[in-house]
Amino acid sequence: MMSGMPRSVVALVLAVVLAVVLAAGYATYALVGPSHSGDGSDRELSAVTEATVTPPTPGSYDPPDLPDAGLASLPSAVNGVRTLYDDLWLVEEGQWWIGNGEIYFPDNSNLVSYRRILESAGTDAAVITAPAADGKYRAKLELHEHPPAVPGWCQDVAEASVHMDADPSGLQMGSFDTFSEPVGIPRGWYRVRYCTEKQDVAARQDAFVGDDHATYAGRHLIQLWKAPPQPDQTLRLGSRWATKLES
After folding, report:
1. Are the C-beta atoms of residues 73 and 136 closer than 8 Å to each other?
2. Which helix (H) or strand (E) holds 141?
3. Whose CB has fewer CB within 10 Å in the chain, the N or C terminal residue?
4. DSSP summary character for residue 108
5. Per-residue pLDDT reduced to its tens digit, 113-124
């Protein structure tokens, strides 16, 4: 095909073809990398390349503004009252507290006298002293939007203050190995009121019925609402048991 062309033209054509071939080869090398050399260097380069472009594992990044895990949501309010617990409550070893279970540990507290039906345990919890150290009590825990009136049926009534300012702020009841489900509540100071009845009857009951814990007489109502901190205060002592405890 090139027999009729001048030698200078043929040389130029060959030079152009050679340049195109060399350029294509360089581009392939740059994109693919060197061929396997047997010394492992190509595998190292491939590993580095893959590690560089591998996307992060889903869920490996936890933004700080995500909701706290493990906390139950507040139930709906009915006439300004949210019921957080309403069931039998098992008390063991005489421990019954209300506060932030993330930071309160009864064994570390030396601020509780167990000579009041309700008292502050530092600022993280309030502690209830009931007639019997072991057994089941009918308990109800309420969160109020405004300070509630004291129910007329209450024989013994006391108040204390609790500071819910941990992260997370999970309000719960605890007693030795028994814990209620922590509920997320707004941070701040809360007033806690403990209201109960029939303490004298409960004090005469046996702790066990067969192999099961006894269910004691009476009701135990715990009410909370936002309020500035105040000293512990006993508002009413109607039972002989509570009167003797605090004397």
Report:
1. no
2. strand 135-144
3. N
4. G
5. 999 999 998 888
